[in-house]
Amino acid sequence: MSVLFPKWTNVLPTVFAVGALGGAVAAIGGFWYYATPKFWRVGYMPTQPGGGFNHQLHVGKLGMDCRYCHTKVEKSYEANIPNVSTCYGCHSDGKLSKLTEDPVHKEKTEFIRTAYAQDASIPWRRVHKVPDYVHNFPHHVHINAGISCYSCHGRIDTMPVVFHAESLSMSWCLDCHRAPEDKVIPKDKITNLAWVQNELKERKAGKAMSVEAQQVLDALQKAPPENCGACHY
Ligand code: HEC
Ligand code: HEC
Ligand code: HEC
Ligand code: HEC
Ligand code: HEC
């Protein structure tokens, strides 16, 4: 429910009442459908539990690959969030001993050891979610088609706190489905977000696709779908 009818739609009965009088329903409805969804989620940045998880630090500074934690991105229909034992592997009492002696660091990471000791999971708040009526979004298909995390999630490696960088609106999906050649890159660069950002910028300015990228594009089984049924019931 909450996904289909966010809080602000509470004003809709009023809008419809006004519309019935003034015949403005079509105009407002049109605005609602075609203009709003494109922008309303960009920037969404929920506060995460405990000391949170800093991608800028772990990926940008420490150089960890996305797949160290999001282990299933190439294989599964939905991406996964790592469980607490992945964090505990580095943040147990024994490891990083110099750091855990630092009281500030110790306090910021205590929620990991607490959750681990209680065999509990950390209640991360979800950032990206397509509405339920979009029944088909195979995450892994996109990775395997040479689409980088960058194209859909932005520069995660520079984010101290994850936020919504792209709209995930229907026209956003379709823009890429109509011109995948603008986004397809060699698969070994998928998680190298800085490289991808630069490459796509240069390509937009007229640089030709590399041979490797062209091969990935040519290998697509079929063109990305534009028919309604591919994504909706
Ligand atoms: C050390 C583990 C780790 C690494 C490495 C890592 N992540 Fe994450 N990621 C997490 C955790 C934990 C969360 C959930 C907390 C949050 O959203 O901040 C998360 C959340 C996310 C989300 C938001 C999920 C949602 O709720 O919508 C995206 C997108 C994401 N990561 C992408 C990436 C990308 C891209 C990379 C590589 C550039 C990466 N991550 C590397 C642990 C990791
Ligand atoms: C490969 C080792 C490794 C893994 C796995 C890892 N971390 Fe870290 N983490 C570090 C290191 C090293 C630091 C300290 C970096 C620094 O201060 O420069 C750190 C720092 C932190 C901090 C303190 C951040 C700050 O702002 O000072 C938090 C919180 C944290 N990690 C949470 C997590 C969570 C949650 C996970 C699991 C999703 C995780 N870490 C997985 C190595 C790791
Ligand atoms: C074609 C666009 C696209 C690409 C490429 C992409 N993602 Fe996503 N990602 C999404 C969408 C859309 C969602 C929300 C999916 C849903 O609601 O089922 C999502 C969700 C996620 C989540 C949250 C899963 C959860 O259950 O909370 C994580 C983590 C994530 N992506 C990580 C990554 C990583 C890492 C990469 C690169 C290896 C990547 N994504 C590449 C579009 C993409
Ligand atoms: C940046 C580019 C890009 C974006 C954004 C994108 N897609 Fe795709 N999508 C592709 C490509 C490329 C393929 C073709 C994959 C293949 O044929 O192997 C594809 C294929 C698909 C397929 C067909 C999968 C199959 O098994 O044949 C579905 C369904 C789909 N995308 C849904 C979505 C939805 C829903 C969104 C928006 C939330 C979205 N896509 C956003 C590039 C993108
Ligand atoms: C590539 C996947 C994809 C295809 C193909 C697609 N849609 Fe969508 N559609 C979406 C996504 C994703 C959303 C959710 C947009 C959002 O959350 O802002 C959506 C939302 C909608 C909505 C809700 C209003 C809105 O714009 O948010 C309607 C109605 C709709 N689609 C109808 C259609 C029709 C009719 C077709 C065929 C002409 C179609 N869709 C084809 C992905 C797709």
Note the beta-strand portion.
under 5%
Q: Give the number of helices.
A: 14
The small-molecule ligands in this entry are: heme C
Order of helices and strands: HHHHHHHHHHHHHH
Describe this structure in words.
The protein has 233 residues and is mainly alpha-helical. It folds into three domains: 7-34, no CATH class; 55-117, no CATH class; 139-231, no CATH class. 46% of the residues lie in helices and 0% in strands. It contains 14 helices and no strands. The chain has helices spanning 12-22, 25-34, 36-39, 55-61, 66-69, 84-91, 97-101, 103-117, 139-144, 149-153, 170-178, 193-204, 211-218, 228-231. Helix 6 (84-91) packs across helix 8. The longest helix has 15 residues, at 103-117. The chain is globular, with a radius of gyration of 21 Å. Bound molecules: heme C (5 copies). One heme C binds at residues 48, 53, 55, 58-59, 64, 66, 68-70, 81-82, 124, 126-128, 149, 153, 156-157, 162, 191, 193.
